[in-house]
Amino acid sequence: MVANQVRHVEPPLRLTRRGRVVVLGLLVVLASLASAVLFTTASRAEQSPAGPPPTIVVRSGDTLWDIAARSMPSRDGQAAVDELRRLNGLSGYGVAAGDVLILPRAV
């Protein structure tokens, strides 16, 4: 290296005030888009599935307990009966053969 040559070093990258505003604006836009995507995905997850709810026709000799045990075997019996009553607007526990009951959707 020759003694007269001066080594030129590039200064570190510096952002002007306008540059910082532009970078901040881009970050805000990206954050907004990400939250919009997450919000729409979350709101779709809460929507109930399309189509009519499942139903069952009460057979002769059936009780709410029998229907709850057949249609919701993994649930507690009394909670399942209460759910059937709530879904069908039943004030009592009696059902008659031929009644059509709405069942809860599978989770």
TrEMBL record:
Entry keyword annotation includes Transmembrane = yes
What positions does the domain LysM occupy?
Answer: 54-103
Q: Which UniProt keywords apply?
A: Membrane, Transmembrane, Transmembrane helix
Q: Where are the transmembrane segments?
A: 21-39
Q: Which InterPro entries match?
A: LysM, LysM_dom_sf
Q: Does the keyword S-adenosyl-L-methionine apply?
A: no
Family matches, as SUPFAM superfamilies: LysM domain
PROSITE patterns for this protein? LYSM
Which is a Pfam family this sequence falls into?
LysM
Q: What Gene3D superfamilies does UniProt report for this protein, alphabetically? A: LysM domain (3.10.350.10)
Protein name, entry field: LysM peptidoglycan-binding domain-containing protein
